[in-house]
Amino acid sequence: MKPKLSVTLCGIKLDNPTVLASGIIGNTGELLKRAGDEGAGAVTTKSISLEPWDGHPSPNVVELEKGLLNAMGLPNPGAEDFVEEINIAKQGDAPVIASIVESTIQGYADVISILESSEPHMYELNASCPNVKGGQDISRSPELAGKLVEKACGVTNAPISFKISPDAGKLADVARAVDESGASAITAVNTLPAKAIDSKANLPVLYNKIGGLSGDLLRPIALRCVSEISDAVEIPIIGTGGVSTGQHAAEMISSGARAVGIGTAVWHHGVGVFKKVSNELSSIMEKKGFESVGDIEHGI
To answer: Which residues bind substrate (predicted)?
Structure first.
């Protein structure tokens, strides 16, 4: 009998544990719908702010040998315009997670209040983006992180996931703070602040100078963070960072993740990566005699 790939995340059933991570092809409802139809267990929107954000000028993406460095600056059309995109995305096969970003705690709550009419299945609080001013301040402070989650939970009954930074110095403390404040999950991790230099010009490649590192280079760090958070709290974790194969997904789940975010691999390989990862994960489980994804937690 084929292994069971479905998982339950915050009371939401996913056909498989793969999740389209925020920031990759999540800027329109049709693209989100397509990712779900092509095999993603859930899909996450690009981060949505109250008013439109233009993002950073080019160059804002650098392709590395084993990763990606981006400083997009979270461009998006604003909450009012994204309501319809979420409605379109929900016509697809996968639950929709709305990613939220703002410059103040009240701003996050205001965005959620606007998006409530579209009833996303879940919200993700992006309080850890490394390429916008002050983007990581909340994620590095247990007190601020807890206040943000408490405020967000006050304006919605939908589950809330807090997206955490890989370089939050008090990772376990932040995880415990958001758990105690009402978070239903933690997304671990966001990209890591990094820099690339043009050797000929001896200048930063990115207009913003600093960008967020993702892909293979981030995976060992993400695995460590997921393990540390899993030891600190019992709420589910969406393990994100450098996953592009079934083996990577299995490693993330065995480290404590309930679901697995995939982003940079979609950039490189397209939406077909979701079925690829799921099929490879199923094969690994079958060889190990695992009946469900939960069995992976006991070793791969």
So the answer is: 46, 70-74, 126, 190-191
The answer on whether 41 is annotated among ligand-binding residues is no
Residue 42 CA to residue 224 CA, distance in Å, equals 24
Task: Tell me the pLDDT tens digit for each residue of 126-170.
Answer: 998 776 665 578 988 999 999 999 999 999 999 999 999 998 778
Q: Is 107 annotated as a binding residue?
A: no
Q: Quick: pLDDT tens for 63-78.
A: 998 999 999 999 999 9
Which of 192, 263, 179 lies closest to 229 in space, CA to CA? 179
Q: Would the annotation count 189 as a binding residue?
A: yes
Among 69, 74, 76, residue whose Cα is nearest residue 210: 69
On the question of pLDDT at 262 being above 70, the answer is yes
Residue 92: DSSP 8-state: S
**SS3 of 256, please?**
coil
- Whether 40 has a binding-site annotation, put simply, is no
Q: How confident is the model at residue 297 (pLDDT cuts 50, 70, 90)?
A: confident
Q: What is the mean pLDDT of the chain?
A: 95
191 is in an annotated binding site: yes
Say whether 129 is catalytic: yes
Whether the pTM exceeds 0.85: the reply is yes
Give CA–CA dist 146/105, Å, rounded.
10
- Give tens-digit pLDDT for 74-112: 999 999 999 999 999 999 989 999 999 999 999 999 999
Please, what are the domains in the chain? 7-55+69-194+214-298 (3.20.20.70)
Q: How many angstroms separate the CA atoms of 89 and 83, rounded?
A: 10
Angstrom distance (rounded) from CA 234 to CA 153: 18
Side chain identity, residue 181: S
Whole-number Å distance between alpha carbons of 4 and 14: 11
